[in-house]
Design brief:
Elements (H helix, E strand, L loop, with lengths): L2 E8 L13 E2 L23 E8 L2 E8 L11 E9 L12 H18 L4 E9 L2 E9 L5 H11 L4 E7 L2 H7 L3 H18 L8 E9 L2 H13 L3 E7 L10 E9 L3 H17 L3 E10 L4
Antiparallel strand pairs: 1-12, 2-3, 3-4, 4-6, 5-7, 5-8, 6-7, 9-11, 9-12, 10-11
Helix pairs in contact: 4-6
Length: about 300
Amino acid sequence: MLLMPVIFWFGMIPDPVSIPSHATPGADTTVQGEVSMPDASTPRSDDNWLTWMADFEGAPISFVTNLGFADEARRENRDLIIAKVTLQSAGVQQGLGSHEERGRVSEAVRALEKELGKATIELVALTMHRGVRTFALAVLSSEMDPTTLRARLATDLPGYTFELNRYKWAYYDDWFYPRPSDFRWAGDASVVDRLRAEGDLHHVPRRVDHWLFFRTRESAEAARVEAAESGYVIESVSEAADATAEDMPWTLQVHHETSVETNTIFRHTTLLTELADRHRGTYDGWETFVVREEP
């Protein structure tokens, strides 16, 4: 079994604008990288897209959201129009549809965006669930309404079924904006993608290390006991020599053997995040090796 160090994710999860309750997530050189998460406390004027997967009503749902629209100034004088487009692929009702068909619908919306200009219409977010592609569009109130937009889409995509309605911008906050767990799923998926790019065999179990930080030794020790009871191997509990009173100077490092499919890793990062929260600490990320050969 060929092991290549080392890919890791260290990323702080931001507080969301609001927490929706709609879905449950679900080379021979050293490779390193960080996942930079947006700071939800500052305005986002630039496009900043996040993609993640979850489960909803017993079927997978994909989200792609422009986080820039969390900035309320970007919403001024613009309506939020939700367009539900029913796809036609065989078997699409039970899954996410073909890449070709999803791309066709996305290209039609992007073409409108390019033709009319982003000041008039702009893609905000999209989902795919049980054969229904849902677009959220920011539309200049005086330039576009659901009836006009439906007619334009129907011309570009004959044979598809469309349902368009105006929504309050709170719908973006409650449905399209990711929760902390969604940010974490996206971070885990990003690391898995980097592993894949290095030729990794995700299904092969290997050592994965995790780091948790705490303010006090008592909290770190309590978390150590709980982590051990959950099946993790304790590597160390240590205090940083140069830590200040505002820091979390106590580090708990644990490891375990596991495959690194996204949903498998996500279950562990969720468990350890919740463990850190219970002891007033923070989960900081995970690290593993690239495995290119079967054991």
